[in-house]
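Students often ask why inverse folding is considered easier than folding. One informal answer: many sequences map to the same fold, so there is more than one right answer. In these notes we will look at a single instance of the problem. The structure comes first.
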C-alpha cells in the first residue's frame, strides 16, 4: 500500500531535515548545492531519503501514476552523434533505419491504450523533422484520434517555430525533448548540436502551450556534482514531465564500455530529482531494468516516481507491461485516468 506522510520528526541528516521543511512543507525544490548533499548521502540514509521523496510526491502530485507507451515511426539512421544512442548513423551499431507505416502506428496506439496508458508518444530518430515527416505525423495524429481515445505526444528532435506551431495546432498534447545531461558535460556526450539548441526547442514548446517532457540520462560518466547540476537545470526549465533514464550501454556506441550505474546511486538520483521538482511528473524510462532490477523498481516507485513507460523502449527491451501494471496494483497506486486537454 502507498505510504502516507509521516508526522513531524527530526532526521539525523541535516539536509533531509531541511528538505522536509523546504520541499514537503513549502513545496520549494532544493538548490543545486542542496541536491549535491542528497546525492552524497551514505547508503544508510537512502531509505529515509526515498521515504521523504515519496511523501513529497504524495503531497504535491497525489497518488495517481501516469502510464505511457512509446513507439518509433523512424528508427536508426540519425545524423547526430549522441554518444549513448545506437540510432546514430555515425556509429557501427546493429540498429538499422526502419520506417513504420500508419496502420502499424494506429495498431500500436490501440495496444497501448489497452494497457491503461493515457499517453502515446510517437518518436523519430532525426535531427529535426523535414516536410515528409511532418506530413506523416499529421496523418498519424488524425488516424489515431479517429480510432483511439488517448493523448498523443511526439519526440521529433529539434524544431523550428513553424513546426512547433503546427504540432500545437494538430493537437499534440506533449512534446519530448531531453536535455540528457548537464550543460557542463554536454560537449562530452554530443558534438553535432549544442545544449542551447535543445533548450531553444524546449522553450518554444512551452510558449506554444504544449506540455514539455524534458528528461535526463544519467550514468554516462558525469560526476555527482553534474547530476545535481542537471537536476537544477531541469527544475529551472519547469517541464511538466521528466523521464529519468539510466544508461544501458549499447554495442557500437562510444559509451558501450561505460558500465551499468550502481543501483543505490540511481535511487539517490530518483530521490534528488523529486526533491528538486516536487510537482513534476517523474517518469521511469530506459535502463531501469538493468540498473535497478525488480526490487529497485519497487523502491523507486516508493521513492518519488509517479509515472512509467510500459513495454519496450525504442531500441531496448523494457519490463513486460503486465509486470509494471501488476506492481502498481500491488502497491495500491491508481493509474491516472485519461483526461483530454486538447
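Output (designed amino acids):
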Amino acid at each position: 500500500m502507498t505510504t502516507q506522510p509521516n508526522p513531524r520528526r527530526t532526521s539525523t541528516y541535516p539536509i533531509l531535515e531541511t528538505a522536509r521543511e523546504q520541499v514537503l512543507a513549502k513545496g520549494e525544490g532544493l538548490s543545486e548545492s542542496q541536491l549535491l548533499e542528497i546525492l552524497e548521502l551514505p547508503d544508510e540514509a537512502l531509505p529515509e531519503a526515498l521515504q521523504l521523496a515519496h511523501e513529497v510526491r504524495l503531497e504535491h502530485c497525489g497518488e495517481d501514476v501516469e502510464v505511457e507507451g512509446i513507439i518509433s515511426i523512424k528508427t536508426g539512421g540519425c545524423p547526430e552523434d549522441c554518444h549513448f544512442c545506437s540510432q546514430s548513423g555515425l556509429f557501427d551499431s546493429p540498429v538499422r533505419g526502419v520506417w513504420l507505416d500508419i496502420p502499424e502506428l494506429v495498431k500500436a496506439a490501440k495496444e497501448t491504450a489497452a494497457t491503461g496508458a493515457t499517453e502515446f508518444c510517437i518518436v523519430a530518430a532525426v535531427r529535426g523533422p523535414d516536410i515528409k515527416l511532418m506530413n506523416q505525423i499529421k496523418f498519424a495524429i488524425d488516424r489515431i484520434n479517429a480510432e483511439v481515445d488517448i493523448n498523443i505526444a511526439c519526440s521529433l528532435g529539434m524544431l523550428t517555430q513553424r513546426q512547433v506551431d503546427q504540432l500545437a495546432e494538430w493537437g499534440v498534447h506533449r512534446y519530448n525533448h531531453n536535455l540528457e545531461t548537464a550543460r557542463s558535460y554536454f560537449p562530452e556526450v554530443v558534438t553535432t548540436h549544442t545544449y542551447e539548441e535543445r533548450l531553444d526547442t524546449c522553450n518554444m514548446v512551452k510558449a506554444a502551450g504544449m506540455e514539455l517532457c524534458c528528461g535526463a540520462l544519467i550514468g554516462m560518466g558525469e560526476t555527482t556534482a553534474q547530476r545535481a547540476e542537471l537536476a537544477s537545470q531541469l527544475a529551472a526549465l519547469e517541464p511538466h514531465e521528466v523521464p529519468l533514464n539510466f544508461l544501458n550501454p549499447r554495442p557500437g556506441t562510444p559509451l558501450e564500455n561505460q558500465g551499468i550505474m550502481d543501483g543505490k546511486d540511481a535511487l539517490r538520483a530518483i530521490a534528488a530529482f523529486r526533491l528538486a521538482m516536487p510537482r513534476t511528473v517523474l517518469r521511469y524510462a530506459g535502463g531501469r531494468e538493468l540498473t535497478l532490477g525488480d526490487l529497485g523498481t519497487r523502491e523507486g516507485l516508493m521513492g518519488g516516481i509517479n509515472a512509467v513507460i510500459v513495454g519496450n523502449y525504442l531500441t531496448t527491451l523494457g519490463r513486460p507491461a503486465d509486470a509494471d501494471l501488476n506492481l502498481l496494483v500491488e502497491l495500491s497506486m491508481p493509474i491516472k485516468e485519461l483526461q483530454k486537454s486538447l
